[in-house]
Amino acid sequence: xxxxxxxxREDTPYYREGAGGWGSVEGMxxxxxxxxxSAGVLDTLRVQNKPGxxxxxxxxxxxxxxxxxxxxxxxxxxxxxxDLTTARCGPDFFAKHTVTELLDWTDHxxxxxxxxTHPLRFNPATDRYEETTWDEAFAAIGAGLRALDPKSTVFxxxxxxxxxxxxxxxLFARAYGHNNLPDSSNMxxxxxxxxxxxxIGSSVGTCVLEDFDQCDMILFFGQNTGTNSPxxxxxxxxxxxxxxxxxxFNPIREAGLVKFxxxxxxxxxxxxxxxxxSETYLQVRPGGDIAALIGLIKRVLELEDEDGGILDHAFxxxxxxxxxxxxxxxxxxxxxxxxxxxxxxxxxxxxVAEAYARARAVIGVYGxxxxxxxxxxxxxxxxVNLLLLRGNIGRPGTGISPVRGHSNVQGQxxxxxxxxxxxxxxxxxxxxxxxxxxxxxxxxxxxxxxGLLDGTVRAFLSLGGNFAxxxxxxARVQPAWRDLALNVQIATKLNRSHLLTxxxxxxxxxxxxxxxxxxxxxxxxxxxxxxxxHIHGSLGRRTPASGMLRSEPAIVAGIAKxxxxxxxxxxxxxxxxxxxxxRDLIEQTWPDTFGDFNARxxxxxxxxxxxxxxxxxxxxxxxxAEITVPPALTSLIGELGSGEYTLVTLRSNDQFNTTVYGYxxxxxxxxxxxxxxxxxxxxxxxxxxxxxxxxRLVCAHDDGHRREVAGLKVTAYDLPDRCLAAxxxxxxxxxxxxLHDGLSKTPxxxxxxxxxxx
Length: 758
Ligand SMILES: Nc1nc2c(c(=O)[nH]1)N[C@H]1C(S)=C(S)[C@@H](COP(=O)(O)OP(=O)(O)OC[C@H]3O[C@@H](n4cnc5c(=O)[nH]c(N)nc54)[C@H](O)[C@@H]3O)O[C@H]1N2
Ligand SMILES: Nc1nc2c(c(=O)[nH]1)N[C@H]1C(S)=C(S)[C@@H](COP(=O)(O)OP(=O)(O)OC[C@H]3O[C@@H](n4cnc5c(=O)[nH]c(N)nc54)[C@H](O)[C@@H]3O)O[C@H]1N2
Ligand SMILES: [Mo]
Fold this sequence. Notes:
Belongs to the prokaryotic molybdopterin-containing oxidoreductase family. By secondary structure, the protein is α/β, with parallel strands linked by helices. Helix content is about 35%, strand content about 15%. Bound molecules: ligand MGD (2 copies) and molybdenum atom.
């Protein structure tokens, strides 16, 4: 494979710096300067992601058992510094600003006001949040919930809350009477939970860290490691250095995947050298992954026909079904079709397929570039197909590795946060607590948005996050929040979801993970599960931002007690007094996964939850791994019409979801107010536009609603033809709520058809 990635683009301004390197230390310092962190933050960072310390609230990448001296990255440091700011957003701030006025503030400015300090109730008469007491808040929220049909209420979770909090949250929801427990995962890796489960019977990845030491090829689809899970660059760098071939499929040449300068390696820092990460970098068209993968499969099957010895026949026979249909599909799909749907040429794909056919142990990695599409589940299934052909699942150095987002989003599903009752511990809740949990399927995030629009959702309780701003179709859905009967937001910092107020609205401030959590029996630890299915304890040591803050478990218990009829088996006060008792409940509910939970909490590197597919036991309907055929060659809703483009929504290096730390997307070489639309220079010329011109994007998916975002500056960038990119959440009004993965309902944030209006 000749196209060494940095030879292609060494001269461009975007890629001169690898990811990592001094830039990241500077990036950190800038945040350190821009924000005033409280004293001792560096000491806190020193124990981040280590046994006895707290687990980072940024990404879900695993925490190794032999951590680096500083086991954190630029963005992990930013997240911690952002949490431990000295700025405070208390009752005096809200006395000065009406909610209507705050709606004009940017996301950055809202959160930059600092940590919320007091429980607040919205007063519609003054249009302000005003100080309240915890007792008053719990009593009023409990009364509000008791007056409603439980099935008209939603308990949302953003993926940060610990296993302990999450377990209590789902217990509360089911005791109260609903399964409306969507979480941020429904906008993110639900495609994995459903789509990967469909084909290999596992809703999570099959790899552990050691696999990355043993593989000789990694196929990397739509995950921006340098920004979103930077600590993953270390194993990738080691893999590249020992000769593992990394082939990346991504419409954008993301700096971290091109090369990486390790800020923890003094030689690389001093010499300014960087390791090349991707051997081959293929700028697939958005949604073109299915076609690219069919191209690879087609060539692998041709090689088998030519010489034999390529497929793992024994594995295929014993463990899979569906090969014949895939073979027929690949034969009948022409290279012309593959090239047009993927935007890649046969000459680019064939060498990758040939390298794959020779590779001993291959891992498939993916992120939002696969999951956030109309046929996202099928893109994942195509990657699984390719891996199965050579038995690349369930052997050392092989597997499929979705890279999760929020730091405990995977774990929340493990402990029962799900709208799908078949995945919930219904029987255990019955026997352990004498409950009669509801059996009806609850709402996904898409269904919550639809329920807000049609008025069937009456109350929303948010355990963290910024749901109203993170979902699709925001401009269309946001007015509906005003009509809720009850809105309760448990949060650390002020955001837009808190400002879409209804008559009965509460804003409850909580501790962050790095803060000390003292309860009746002393300091409490919590736990979370990472992307590679390892469970870690986390102990906060910082003095809380305000004496009025409560922990998330205490807030959940406070609301639950005020809502539910007394039940002698629901021991909310005991559990909040000693979180190890919540871990006992988790162990009792899932003894196989959580045996000896409390004793194993401080295991270096976490303890492994196990994975049947890794052992080649397939918990699918057929009991085999399913080789499947896709319904279409792209994961998009359909062909683009004339003058239409596929819009990809992006994260910058200076944001964590809707938290905007600043305005520099350093790894992409962009400094911007975020209101930009990226397109390639030829495309700009063809559209008769010029750089810097302000345009309006209009959604081209016609369902009778006009969706637009104006004031986006045209910015030249290296992208495939017919592809535009803009930042999330600014671009969310363009994504119709009805545009989502068919199986999992994950919104198509990476595949919305749009037109440009000058
Ligand atoms: N610093 C920081 N870290 C984060 C987050 C953050 O916002 N900031 N968010 C966290 C969360 S919740 C999540 S889910 C993860 C998200 O992490 P990622 O999974 O990396 O998600 P994105 O940055 O949205 O997009 C991933 C990549 O997909 C590419 N892409 C877009 N469309 C396609 C396509 O059709 N095919 C292919 N092959 N590639 C495509 C984009 O160019 C981009 O590089 O990160 C987590 N970590
Ligand atoms: N267009 C587009 N939309 C997207 C995406 C995309 O790629 N493109 N990505 C989607 C994805 S992957 C995700 S995960 C969602 C994210 O959706 P969410 O998880 O709902 O949003 P966040 O921006 O992570 O939430 C930030 C807020 O969480 C609160 N918070 C922070 N820490 C804590 C804590 O410890 N406890 C509590 N209680 N609150 C806390 C703060 O108040 C902060 O303002 O967005 C989705 N939306
Ligand atoms: Mo996410």
